[in-house]
Design goal:
With about 200 residues, the chain is an all-alpha fold. The protein has seven helices and no strands.
Length: about 200
């Protein structure tokens, strides 16, 4: 495809970005409420004419990489790290009887809310920046939509927020760290390094 060309129909670019954004918000809300990825809303599937666009980590334009790294990967990586630190501190306080079961459950609820807010803020920034990039460079639109869909699926899957929410829900009962919590931040870093 040459500069300025896209295979997408008018309005399709924004439609798919907005759908990915909306379903991601529904999925993180579901994870926070139910503590499991089982039954969670799925990120919108892309039609074949968009999924057919071939790209690899060697040909993602630098402005797209910058957007995903600064607006999406880094904030989620930082929030996962903060979540891990906060969970460790709450468990220490619980194990030394400084807080009760109810206090610990209230902490989990509060941490869930912080995670959702951070994810939604990064999702919103990413969506807006990607729209701007796609309008400036229509030839990038299919690649942008593909990357946003794939990275949203990853962040809300079992290796990051889906796993963290499930682990935190089980911590209400077992009161110890589940491995996905300390691993989530590293999983994000590795994914975006490979993807971009």
């Amino acid at each position: 495809m040459t500069t300025g060309e896209t295979a997408l129909q008018p309005g399709e670019f924004e439609h798919y970005l907005d759908e990915i954004f909306a379903t991601s918000k529904r999925r993180i809300a579901y994870l926070g409420k139910h503590g499991t990825i089982s039954g969670a809303p799925q990120i919108v599937a892309l039609p074949p004419h968009i999924k057919a666009v071939q790209f690899n980590s060697g040909n993602v334009p630098m402005p797209i990489q910058d957007c995903f790294n600064s607006d999406y990967a880094y904030p989620n990586e930082q929030q996962a790290s903060t979540n891990n630190t906060n969970v460790d501190q709450a468990l220490d306080r619980y194990n030394t009887h400084a807080i009760t079961d109810d206090d610990f459950d209230a902490f989990i609820d509060s941490q869930d809310d912080q995670n959702k807010a951070a994810f939604n803020a990064s999702q919103d920034r990413t969506n807006q920046t990607l729209k701007n990039l796609g309008h400036e460079h229509p030839e990038w639109q299919e690649q942008i939509v593909n990357l946003f869909q794939e990275s949203s699926n990853f962040l809300l899957g079992s290796l990051v927020w889906g796993g963290v929410y499930s682990a935190m829900e089980s911590m209400r009962t077992i009161k110890r760290v589940v491995p996905v919590i300390p691993e989530a931040s590293g999983n994000i870093a590795a994914y975006f390094k490979n993807q971009l």
